[in-house]
Amino acid sequence: HPECRCNPCLCKMRLCFVLVVMAVVDQCSSSLNLYVDSDDVKKLLGVSSQLWYVQNGTVNKYALGYVVVVPPHVDLLTFHWQALGGMTMPYNMSVQVGNREALAPPVYNISDQSIVPTYPSSWTIRLICTGKLTTQVDVTITLKVPMSTSLVNTTTLNIRRKKICLRGKVGGIAEREGEVGGISVEILEARHSTTVVYITISCLGVFLLVVAFLAIFNHIKNNKARPNTGRRRGTGASEQRTVGRSTASGGNVPNNQV
Ligand SMILES: *[C@@H]1O[C@H](CO)[C@@H](O)[C@H](O)[C@H]1NC(C)=O
Ligand SMILES: *[C@@H]1O[C@H](CO)[C@@H](O)[C@H](O)[C@H]1NC(C)=O
Ligand SMILES: *[C@@H]1O[C@H](CO)[C@@H](O)[C@H](O)[C@H]1NC(C)=O
Ligand SMILES: *[C@@H]1O[C@H](CO)[C@@H](O)[C@H](O)[C@H]1NC(C)=O
């Protein structure tokens, strides 16, 4: 029998080889967990339940198809993920924003291209409204992961959000450092309007001062004008008198001399 030719050692080696191959194949069917925690779902949807996008390598198409509305006071989204089966999984990430005027470029704390950790991990993405427009902004987070046995085929996960932005509200209000981070445009406008009021008042003050100065100047000028004319008349009279006297005296002198 051929089986008889297989010595115990070789049989063990064959078994070992088969086991190793099976393990490798198992490892290659890398899978993933990707979900939003119940606390964050409660903030967004008011329901305390985890929202699974990928569970144990199974894509939840229903969850991915659902556009979650992000209210104005929420700007931080947290996602939890883990590569299963003890094997790290490469990913590519990109974020599309529907209206760049209303929403600042989203900031997230993972790289665009890296590996999904094998331990439970989380990452965040921050959606900051510019405060320029009141509108709904479509945000699509695209993750590309090789989730099938063949590493060639990648699975594209599109996680969709609709962020509500309000005109005059920069970032989230009253959420964590929202008070510190985002200065309300309304306050800026209020500051601007007080400045305008100050400028108006000071302009009015300057105008009143100019008017008062002109009035005083005119009054002084008028008051000065009367004594001046009087003096001129007086001097004119005295000149005439002196001239008269001189002429008289002059007249007299020649007359006396003559
Ligand atoms: C994930 O799948 C593995 C086998 O494919 C199974 O043993 C495990 O219980 C599953 N876990 C969950 C949370 O569904
Ligand atoms: C990520 O993108 C790079 C090129 O941009 C590509 O080579 C790589 O295969 C992609 N990886 C995944 C998991 O899609
Ligand atoms: C991203 O930020 C969150 C909150 O600050 C933190 O819990 C998480 O560990 C960070 N993730 C990475 C990959 O840095
Ligand atoms: C990989 O993709 C090709 C075409 O895009 C498809 O024919 C093939 O069945 C896919 N393989 C797996 C394992 O999904």
From TrEMBL:
The chain crosses the membrane at residues 196-217. Residues 225-258 are annotated as: Disordered. Residues 34-165 form the WIF domain. Residues 225-234 have a biased composition (Basic residues). PROSITE patterns: WIF. The keyword Aminoacyl-tRNA synthetase does not apply. Residues 237-258 have a biased composition (Polar residues). One of its GO terms (molecular function) is kinase activity. It comes from Penaeus merguiensis (Banana prawn). This is Receptor like tyrosine kinase. InterPro entries: WIF, WIF_sf. It comes from the Eukaryota. Keywords: Glycoprotein, Kinase, Membrane, Receptor, Signal, Transferase, Transmembrane, Transmembrane helix. The keyword Transport does not apply. Residues 1-30 form the signal peptide.
